[in-house]
Each structure stands twice: as structure tokens, then as C-alpha cells.
Design a protein that fits this description.
This protein is an alpha/beta fold. Helix content is 39%, strand content 19%. The chain has eleven helices and 15 strands. It binds uridine-diphosphate-N-acetylglucosamine.
């Protein structure tokens, strides 16, 4: 069975991929600096009763550290090799991801996301590991069009965070072109992953004040924050609030496994793939659904539009459906229910 290196494996999306990898029986190696996550999630996941038949401590290794630490990365690959259990593929999620912060500290973003990725690619090359899945983002697309994005939409990010994602995708294309029969690469462009594993064992709990709507919504529901600011009710959308493509994080995690299997059985290529549901929901629809399924009142107030926002961002997921059989199962109600359950469980 293959050994998968998961960078950023204790974060929100990483920990859900971790769960699904365990279920599929993979050997799993995680590297995470824990600057925006906690190691505790590993114990919570390994203790999950539904994973008992699958989790084997001998098939798991955790390294606390930064991907910019080349010596550590080297040790990880070397030690796997010495145990005849080479790293076969890397799923790369480690990186900084707060848009507003990226505008204040661009160098930190370029250094952590881009330099970090380059170091990772160098070490992969050294150990002949050429299978790679990258956690990219719909934020790289040009927002000039209709708000429905397919994979051929022009790439034109508008903030340093998006620039670093686009730059890493470019490096991956250059790397592929340098030896076309070697690399199997997938750039997964996430839309808006929310929700949590239905067990309630894993929660999105960013350190500091959250930027994205769902963690803010959870904090308003738990009364840690008084009120949700709705950024604009004068957009050109049916109810005036912004429309996004919210997708359950567990469906996103499944997408990684499906892509991994697809890459392994197909010739080398670079694949760009949208991961969303193809269905847009407004901020008001999100709030109303959350209130309804959880029977909780959400305090909100309309405020000004947020800089850099667009009215609509919805994925065209035809390619993912066709190539990997992507079929996200969960609805907005599931995302709201599962997200709130995990918040209550992780107070
Ligand atoms: C944001 C980032 C995007 C990044 C993505 C994932 C901006 C402009 N965009 O996307 O680059 O890839 O997160 O990290 O920051 N909203 C509120 N109140 C809030 C927060 C959000 O009304 O407190 C609204 C937004 O205006 C938007 C929707 O909720 O209509 C979703 O916002 P968010 O979760 O931040 O995601 P994106 O805007 O899609």
C-alpha cells in the first residue's frame, strides 16, 4: 500500500483528508508546523471508533515542522526509503491562507507558500517522487466574467495570497514541461469548503479572528462573536448578498482520494480541477439554512461590501465529474448541521 505525505495534515482540510486516507488503508506521513492548527486533532482522529478497523499506528508518522526546513523534509523521505516504504505521492496543503494578512505581509506569503513549495519539489525530485496534488483555490480566477468558472478561465488573482497559488501552479507546469513523462500533477481549485466530519471530531477553528464566513458564523452561533457582518446587500444577485459555491469538506477530502487514484493509473499529466458543487448559495441562504437546521438564531447586520469581493463565484464541475467521477453528496443543510455539531464538540 502506498505511503502518502500530507503537508498541512492537521489543518481543517488536511485532517479530513487524513481521515479518508486512513479509511482507504494508505500509509500516511504528516508534516505540519501547527502554526494554524493543533496536533491534538491526530489523537481525536485516531480515537474515532469508526476508524478503529482501519487505523494502524505502524502505518502513520507525524513530523512537527515547516516545509521550508529542507533538512527535515530530506529526513522524512530518507527515513521512509530506509524502511522500504518510500513516499509515493505528496498532497500539499501547508501554507498561509488569510487574504487580508497576505496584503500586509506579502513576503511571508511568498516565502512560506512559494519558497516552501520549491523546497518540497526539490526534495521530491531528489527522491524520485513525482506524484503531486496541490491545494489551489478558485481565488486565482479572473473575476471579470459571469461568476461561473471553468478550468480555462483566465488566471488573474488580485491579492498576494492568490498570486502565490497561481505562481505555484505555474512552477508545477514548468516542472512538468521539464520532463513530460515524469510528473503526475493535479491542481485542485477549491471553491468554499465548509462543514465538518459528521462525527463532530474535527472542527475548523482558525487561530485569531476568522476571515471566512463559516468560522465567523460558528462563532456567532456560539456567542463568541456578537454579530455577523454581511458584506453588502446591494450586489446584483437575487437577494443582494454574495453568492458562493459552498462544498462539504468531506466531499473535498474524497476528491483528493479520487484524484490520487486517477493520477496513479493514468499517464503523466498536469490536471487542473475545480472542486465545488456547481450550485451557488447566497449569504442569506447560508444564514437561513444554518438557523433552520440547527434551530439557532444568528445575529447579523448588513455592512459595506468587502474590498476584493465579487458578487458570484460558482464552479463548473463537469471536468471533475467526467475524469474522476466527482459527485459531491452533501447539501448546504448537511454542511451547516455537521459544522455546528463539530463546533459544539470542540468547545
Ligand atoms: C475568500 C477570499 C478568497 C479565498 C477564500 C478562501 C476575499 C475577498 N476572498 O473567498 O481569496 O480564496 O476566502 O480562503 O477575502 N462574508 C460576509 N461576512 C463575513 C465573511 C464573509 O458577509 O464575515 C461573505 C463574503 O462577502 C462572501 C461570502 O460571505 O460573499 C463568502 O466569503 P468567504 O468565506 O470569505 O469566502 P470568499 O469570499 O469566497
Amino acid at each position: 500500500m502506498k505511503n502518502i505525505l500530507l503537508t498541512g495534515g492537521t489543518g481543517f482540510i488536511g485532517s479530513h483528508i487524513f481521515i479518508q486516507l486512513i479509511k482507504c488503508g494508505y500509509y500516511i506521513t504528516i508534516i505540519d508546523s501547527n502554526i494554524n492548527s493543533s496536533e491534538k486533532v491526530i489523537k481525536r482522529i485516531s480515537d474515532m471508533s469508526e476508524l478503529t478497523p482501519f487505523f494502524d499506528i505502524k502505518k502513520f508518522k507525524f513530523y512537527k515542522g515547516d516545509i521550508r526546513n529542507e533538512i527535515l523534509l530530506n529526513d522524512i523521505f530518507l527515513s521512509a526509503k530506509e524502511q522500504n516504504n518510500e513516499i509515493d505521492a505528496v498532497i500539499h496543503l501547508a501554507g498561509l491562507k488569510a487574504v487580508r494578512e497576505s496584503k500586509i505581509k506579502p513576503l511571508e506569503y511568498w516565502e512560506s507558500n512559494v519558497s516552501g513549495s520549491i523546497i518540497l519539489f526539490k526534495v521530491m525530485q531528489k527522491f524520485n517522487c513525482y506524484n503531486f496534488i496541490f491545494s489551489s483555490s478558485a481565488t486565482i480566477y479572473s473575476s471579470d466574467g459571469t461568476g461561473f468558472f471553468d478550468e480555462d478561465t483566465i488566471i488573474k488573482p488580485i491579492n498576494p495570497y492568490g498570486n502565490t497559488k497561481a505562481a505555484i501552479e505555474q512552477i508545477l507546469r514548468d516542472l512538468f514541461d521539464s520532463s513530460p513523462n515524469l510528473w503526475r500533477i493535479a491542481c485542485l481549485r477549491y471553491f468554499n469548503p465548509i462543514g465538518a466530519h459528521p462525527s463532530g471530531n474535527v472542527c475548523e477553528d482558525p487561530k485569531g479572528i476568522p476571515n471566512n464566513i463559516f468560522p465567523v458564523l460558528l462563532k456567532v452561533a456560539s456567542r463568541e462573536i456578537d454579530c455577523l457582518e454581511v458584506f453588502g446587500n446591494d450586489w446584483e444577485t437575487p437577494d443582494g448578498t454574495g453568492i458562493r459555491d459552498y462544498v462539504h469538506v468531506l466531499d473535498i477530502a474524497d476528491g483528493h482520494i479520487m484524484v490520487l487514484k486517477y493520477l496513479m493509473k493514468n499517464p503523466p499529466k498536469v490536471l487542473n480541477l475545480n472542486l465545488g458543487t456547481g450550485v451557488g448559495k447566497s449569504v442569506m441562504e447560508l444564514i437561513n439554512t444554518f438557523e433552520e437546521v440547527n434551530q439557532i438564531k444568528i445575529n447579523y447586520v448588513f455592512s459595506n461590501r468587502r474590498e476584493g469581493d465579487i458578487p458570484r463565484s460558482v464552479a463548473n464541475i463537469d471536468l471533475a465529474k467526467k475524469l474522476i467521477g466527482w459527485d459531491p453528496k452533501n447539501k448546504l443543510a448537511d454542511m451547516c448541521k455537521d459544522g455546528w455539531r463539530s463546533k459544539l464538540n470542540n468547545q
